[in-house]
Amino acid sequence: MKAETQKILILSYYWPPSGGSGVQRWMYFAKYLKVLGWEPIVVTVNETKASYPVLDPSLQQEVEGIRTLKTNTTEPLRWYARLTTDKKTPSFPQGEVKRDRITEKLAAFIRGNFFIPDARKGWGPHALKAAKKVILQEGITKVITTGPPHSTHLVGLHLKKELGIKWWADFRDPWTDIFYNTFLYRTVYARKKDQTLEKEVLLQADGILTTLAGEFHEKLQTKAPHQQFIALPNGFDETLMKNTPAAPKKAKFHIVFTGLLTQNQDFTSIVEVIHHVSKSHKIYFSLAGTINPKIVSQLKTKLPKVAVDFRGYLSHAQAIALMKSADVLLNFIFKGAETQMISGKLLEYMATEVPIISIGNPNSLSGQLLAQGSNSWMIAPEDKKEIEKKFTLLLNQKNTKNKLPQLNQWSRKAITQRLIEEVLLTSD
Predict the structure, then answer these.
(1) How many CB atoms lie within 10 A of CB 158?
(2) Are residues 286 and 227 in the same domain?
(3) Which of 23, 156, 281, 415 has the highest local Cβ count within 10 Å?
């Protein structure tokens, strides 16, 4: 294969130093594409202009040596933020839509009807200009766009029409069917406009990548019956997992949650169970990530005998170290999103070999994955008796391991090899 055919252009709004889960999928794909002999070139937004919810500068070491073109952007998020927060934070609340106050309801209406497909669409013209330039200069024939923000796919659509490149659109999350759209007071016009944009992308792309197959693919296929859909899941970075030592172990039974926690996740049953077992066991509960301070206060109030320690947002490596120090890891699936994703965090949880209790639909793909582990369970939120049973089991068998057969197939490197074989080498 000629060197120029090994170049691939990746358009991703989220890129280091952006933190959070959205950045990691293509950060790791790019890292291992380079390791496996390809030359990834990335078009992204300048972090000083971007609307990133969180920053994690430590992730920049993962993409050292990868050619990155950073552009300007034009976004209305700073004005929108004034309606939803007391701070001038240029971002949307993640994973939930607040609708308690009149200003929050107004913001939800604006978000759903004026930012179509999303409020970061102002990056599109800047990304398109940079992408066209590098494609023509470098003779690039393969392009990946990844969303959210799904407006990134509209750049791929333009590039396909104008330059005839091979273009794959990566849906990290659903587009029009994302669970929180039902809370946005969308008009019929807004819904139809969004659906039209999504359908054009689904029909015109050379292929669609997703993180999950099953019901998600079935829904997309109703919109583009003849399209090719390939599921490439998120995974864990084997190198990071091996090279990151566990944080110091706690003398008390240590419960850990990392990630995003909102009121749109059902943690009520677990809190009640933890409160009950804390009457007879010493419990230490560590939380880290993007968590509303009101939820932290709520947990401290409802768990008076538990040492609740909110660590704030940690770097990726620090989060892994904290996970490894746990006796049990907690996970909560977003209400309405049970069939939409297997998160990268859940796979990192599995790679730590620490037992897992996750709240959600046991029959979902995430539930089926956890069922393969020796000590990992997806439990329905209303099944408090089963939650307490599993907690009691772990309390009585401290230092229990959770083993997943064929764990290596979920490594980022292995999944990147699949990307090469199933997508890049078949799209000439």
Answers:
(1) 17
(2) no
(3) 156
Q: Where are the alpha helices (DSSP H) in 148-278?
A: 151-163, 188-204, 215-223, 238-243, 268-277
- Could you state, in chain order, the average pLDDT of each consecutive group of 10 residues for the chain (428 residues)? 69 95 94 97 96 92 96 76 51 55 75 85 96 97 96 98 97 86 82 96 97 88 96 94 96 95 89 96 96 92 97 95 98 76 88 96 92 97 96 90 94 97 86
Domains identified in the chain, total number: 2
- CATH number, domain of 334, equals 3.40.50.2000
309 and 269 both lie in a single domain: yes
Tell me how far apart the alpha carbons of residues 272 and 302 are, in angstroms, rounded to a whole number. 8
How far does CA 165 lie from the centroid of its chain? 27
Dihedral sign for Cα atoms in the order 188, 193, 197, 203: positive
Residue 379: how many CB atoms within 10 A of its CB? Answer: 22
The pLDDT score that the predictor gives to residue 75 is 79
Return the structure tokens found at 252: 């008390």
Q: Look up the domain containing 187 and give its range.
A: 3-234+412-426
Closest CA to 206 of 244, 242, 241, 166: 166
Specify the pLDDT at position 119.
Answer: 86
Q: Residue 39 corresponds to which tokens in the numbers above?
A: 């030359």
Look up residue 104 and give its two tokens.
């929050």
Is the domain of 163 the same as that of 33?
yes
- Statement to judge: residues 242 and 228 lie in one domain: no
**Does 148 share its domain with 259?**
no
Are 97 and 200 within one domain?
yes
Say if residue 266 is in the same domain as residue 153. Answer: no
Q: Which residues pair with 229 in a beta bridge?
A: 208
pTM: 0.90
Provide the residue type at 422 as one letter: E
Quote the tokens at residue 11.
């358009």
Q: Could you tell me if 89 and 219 lie in one domain?
A: yes
In Å, what is the CA distance from 80 to each residue of 84, 149, 187, 233, 373? 7, 16, 19, 33, 43
Cα angle vertex 199, ends 225, 221, to 5°? 25
What's the pLDDT score for residue 32?
Answer: 97
Closest-CA residue to 95 (of 13, 180, 211): 180
CA 310 vs CA 203, 315, 349: distances in Å:
45, 14, 19
SS3 assignment, position 80: helix
275 residue type, one letter: H
